[in-house]
Description:
Elements: E1 18-22, E2 35-36, E3 46-52, H1 64-70, E4 71-74, E5 79-89, E6 97-102, E7 107-109, E8 112-114, H2 116-123, E9 129-138, E10 144-152, H3 159-167, E11 175-180, E12 196-201, E13 206-210, H4 216-247, E14 259-262, E15 268-271, E16 277-278, H5 281-285, H6 290-300
Parallel strand pairs: 2-4
Antiparallel strand pairs: 1-3, 3-5, 4-5, 5-6, 7-8, 9-10, 11-12, 12-13, 14-15, 15-16
Amino acid sequence: MGKKNTFGTIGYPIGFVKSKIVDPKSLKDIVPGSKIDLQEVPTGNAGLLLVNGPGMMKGYLNNQEETDKVFFYDLDGTRWYNTGDLVIRTGLGDNEYKFAGRQKRNFVCGVDNIYPEQIEQLVAQLPEVRDIVVTEVPDAKYQFLPVYHISLSDANVDTNKLKNKIDVLINDTDIRVDVYRSSGNGGQGVNTTDSAVRITHIPTGIVITVQNERSQLKNKEIALNILRNKLKQIEIENREKEINSLKGNANIDFGSQIRNYVLEPYSLVKDVRSGYETSNYEKVLDGDIYPFIESVLRMKR
C-alpha cells in the first residue's frame, strides 16, 4: 500500500503493483494452473485480495502443492498471488482498502504458517487432553495469537505439568526428518525398508538417530520422545541460568558475610569491607545501618 491512508483503512494500492478483489467462492475447486475469469466484487463488498507485480515470489521451495494453493491465473495468463487477506475497496480517495479479516486461520511463526488444526492434532496426543479447540485473539499489534481451550480427561490432572508439556511439544516446522535403511549384521537380519530415522531439531541443531525397531513409525516415536526430553532439559538449564543471573554472584558460605556481630562478652558490630565498627549493636539491629552504607561508599570513591 502506498501514500498516507485515511484513518480506518490500510492505504492505497502501490502504483507498480496490480491488485484485484475477488469473491473467495469463485476460487473454490479450481484445477491448478487453469485460467479463470477473475471478476472483481463491487466497491464496498468484502473480497479476497490478489496481487501481481515485480518481486512476487515464484512459489514455495520444493512444495508444488502449497504453491498451487496460492496462485491463480486470469484468462489473459496473468499470475495472481492470493494474500489470504479479505479487504473492502472503500471508494474513498484513490480507492483505499479496508482490512476485513483473514480467509484462513493461521499464525505466523518466523517464516512459517502454523494452522490451528496442526496445534490441535499435536496437543490431542497428550493423554491428559480429552478435547482441544484452538482459536485466535489479536495482540496489541493486531497480530493473531493462539488460544487453547482444553477439556481434561481427568479432573485431577496437574494443569501446571500439562502446561509444561504443551510448551515443549515440537512443531513440525522445527524439525527435519530423514529416513534410511538401518545397518545390521547381514543375512536375514538385514532391514530391506527405510526404517531408521534421523530427526534434526533446526533451532538447536540437536540430531537424534534411532534404528532399534523394524518399524519406521516406532523409531520416529522413540526419536521424538528423546528429542522432547533433551529440549525439556535445555529449558530447565536455561531457567536455572536465568535464576542464577538474577541472584548475581551471591555467596552464602561461612566467612562470606559483610558484617560481624559480637554480643558477648563484649558488644561489637564490624563491617568487614570498610572496617567501620560500632559497639551499639541494638541500634544496628533496629535497622540503623546508614553509617555502614556510608563507610562502604566512601571506600569506593
